[in-house]
Amino acid sequence: MSHTQSLNNYLDAKPTLAEPSYPSNCLEFARHLAESLSSNGHAKNGKTSLKIILVGGGLGGLATAIALKQSGHHVTVYEKAGELSEIGAGIQVPSNSTRILIKLGLEKYLKPFVTEPEAIVIRRWQNGKVIGNTRLIPDFVDSFKAPYYVVHRADFLSALHKKALDEKIEINLGHKVSGYDPMKGDIILEDGTTHSGDLIVAADGIHSIARKCILGEDMVFQESGLAAYRNTVDVKRMRDDPEVSWVLERPSMNVWVGDAGHAMTYTIGSGKTFNFVLAHPDTTDPSTWDQRDNIGDMKSRFAGWDPVVTKIIGMVDSTLKWPLLNGSPLSRWASGKLVILGDAAHPMLPYMSQGAAMAVEDAAALTRALSKMESPAQLEEALGIFEKVRIKRTGQMHQASLLNSQLWHLADGPWQEARDAAMEPEVKGFPFAHSPNQWSDPATQMWCYGYDCEKEIDKEWENSLNK
Ligand SMILES: Cc1cc2nc3c(=O)[nH]c(=O)nc-3n(C[C@H](O)[C@H](O)[C@H](O)COP(=O)(O)OP(=O)(O)OC[C@H]3O[C@@H](n4cnc5c(N)ncnc54)[C@H](O)[C@@H]3O)c2cc1C
């Protein structure tokens, strides 16, 4: 027996380590070893190659198209818009998302456009005093093996688009889907033509028509009573003002939190643009909003906040007021040969900065579930497992986002003071076991950013085999 053979035999002698039922990462080393052994010489592609129609060319749809194509499926995308576009604002791409994107080969497409902030700094609304601090560099790369990026949405979408084209995925722009036949696996386009697939994946966004088709009625949206002004500011103007230029000096995300509102800020476009989102209560009907009133409204709503915030507001030329919609967790994401993902399946408040990240996880999880199929007859089982794992994860993220909207928006008083006192250790750099800052709280952090959606699908598949 050669030395290599005996080493392989030794490695193959897998010990039976019982998986704990409590949240623990003590077996992470074993999972990494098992993964690298199984990928050594074995194709990761699914055993069953499907003809998949993907509806929606947003962040979720394109990430899913790339993951499915790389797994050996034939993928065709239908997007209603004549060209792919995103609103002119920034987006956070947290480590649980970048880990998947990097695995899909997107690093070289994204890298020229991203900023990697050093930290997320929480500040008091009135004077900018630091009350919370989550160190991203080096902590997140060390702990979660992936960077935390911020990027302009248009650059993110264009990176996915370029990668999809390099993967030779057919993308049909200007094709609106007007109906579905889930049992047959058909989509009906607005021009009346029908296209069939073994599977239809609908990533058609928050106002999804596929969702209605699966549920028989639309999701109930909960009143969030919240809206956001989404702005970008030219950094040249900020650099010229010493009172605000420090915000640009070291790339960090700064979020000012106060009674019923917050201001989230970071630079995008490799430091050329400043992204500035102001969340505030608004119970009026969005159909009555006149976008021309925004600048004046924004100024009066944030009057009295830290002069840094009000000065930057003064530099905004135009702003977009956006309703913050809060869906409700669904009991089903699939019916027949139709499945939904991304915002179509889990619209949530953006307060964990995880909506698109959940869609990227959906992409990897769906691909993994389909890779388990030995034959097309197992589609229902694979979709059932995908749906079960993802409904749990995204439902929990939905809750975490809601909790952040309460934690950040406390009015001044004893609850706010106790919250701020509980964050003091992280600000002072002392060790801590818990924090009301969910980005820092060790247990929440591990659950949020250390989550491995493929492993969860594997576990659920094993469970279903043992039933
Ligand atoms: C203020 C704000 C801040 C946010 N910040 C973050 C953040 O920092 N990090 C993060 O991860 N997430 C964030 N999110 C959430 C994130 O933007 C969304 O979760 C994500 O963009 C959803 O992607 P999607 O592909 O599922 O849907 P969409 O982006 O809505 O894409 C749906 C696509 O489907 C197409 N489509 C729709 N209907 C049809 C049809 N009938 N036929 C053909 N095509 C169709 C649409 O044209 C569109 O291109 C934020 C959201 C908001 C509002």
UniProtKB/TrEMBL annotation:
Signal peptide residue numbers: none
Organism: Talaromyces islandicus
Cited PANTHER family: HYDROXYLASE, PUTATIVE-RELATED, MONOOXYGENASE
Domain FAD-binding: from-to ranges: 51-376
Family assignment from sequence similarity: Belongs to the paxM FAD-dependent monooxygenase family.
Name assigned to this protein: Salicylate hydroxylase
GO MF terms, alphabetically ordered: FAD binding; monooxygenase activity
One of the Pfam families matching this protein, by short name: FAD_binding_3
Coiled-coil segments: none
InterPro entries: FAD-bd, FAD-dep_Monooxygenase_BioMet, FAD/NAD-bd_sf
Keywords: FAD, Flavoprotein, Monooxygenase, Oxidoreductase
